[in-house]
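Batch manifest, entry 17 of 40.
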Amino acid sequence: MNDLITTLEKLHVEFDQEAKDIAFWWSENLIDKSRNRFYGLIDSRLIADPSSSQSLVYNSRILWFFSEMAMAATDVSSERKFLSVAEIAFETLSSEFQDTVDGGMFWEVNHLGQPIDQAKRVYGQAFCLYGLVSYFQASQSAAAEALARGLFDVIQQKCLDKTFGGYFESFSRDWQPLEDQRLSSSDRNFPKSMNTNLHVMEALTSFHQVMGTHDSNVALRNCIETFRKHLLTSELRLKLFSDIKWADRSGGKFSQGHEIEFTWLLCTAATAAGDEDLISWAKSIAVKMTDRILGNGVRENGLLPEEERGDKSIWWIQAEAILGFLNAFEISDRPEFLKAAEAVWDFAKCYHRSSERGLWTWYSVRDQAKQKYVAGPWKGPYHDGRAMLEGRQRAFRMLDRARKNNEALDGARTSCLNIQPAG
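Output type: structure tokens
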């Protein structure tokens, strides 16, 4: 028991410090102070480009992280600093990305704040909702609340497949289906994806926890059921792409990174939905999936590659793996899951933390020649920052439980020692 307490204390301290370091690097390097606006791109040489465009996902993730950091701050100065960064993200989203004519949010704007990709990609709508909910919590902004509630309605009215369930991929500005549904060139062109539905579930979870209504509860439960009925295979793998009726169009490929991320997001969603049967099912699925990933995917050094046979290390997968293994340990108390979380964290510390304190690299530092940008369309302080914030909370929660169990055990031992012999 003392070894467990020591491990959890160590993780709590390290996660806490890393979250602060991440927030410090981004708050110091992200903002073009001449315009009080974010740089849309900082390349692998740490050179910021003030003329680069900005994506909806990038701004939404920054909004989420700094809102959460503001709420987690233990002093007024830090809270104000983090909230000021979140405010820039909110102002950018509400004034530049918001479509006040057709509803929803544009996908991309240029450095002047003009929309250059007016597509309504559902993945981006979900991330924006996710960020808005946290910003409302941190700021109590009435404008943020109104925008979040309006965006929830848009997602339900425009993006939901009311016939076969789940959420579509992409629409034009006026909500017509796009011929090219893909988020990126590496995706397959089909109308539904696991990735989009996963992050809609994530956003609905947050929205329901903070602004819960009957409609949000129904939406969240239905989204969870989409995974149970359509996206989760009998082998406990997740289909990457599907046609409109949920026939698998993944081409035989899977994503370990998204699967380990799904395990803990599923449990959080089920808990928010408040259904004990659903919670029990989610926990069972999470442990089984995590067990398979541990047995087939994690290398001895703690690396979890995107594919079982690969060896490429990507920062977000390592971050999500930390949480997936912590979640499985918290459910099951199986020590191998905690050891796996430690190993993945150790790998991330060694191979994804750059020489810039608080900055994680896209690929392992061993692949320096292949590095992508450090800040840009798909990379903000979200996966690594969230792993540290969520990991810190989970470590503290499990630490509190372990200490209470230890005290109870010590109390039982003392009682036994105080029993007087008969006669």
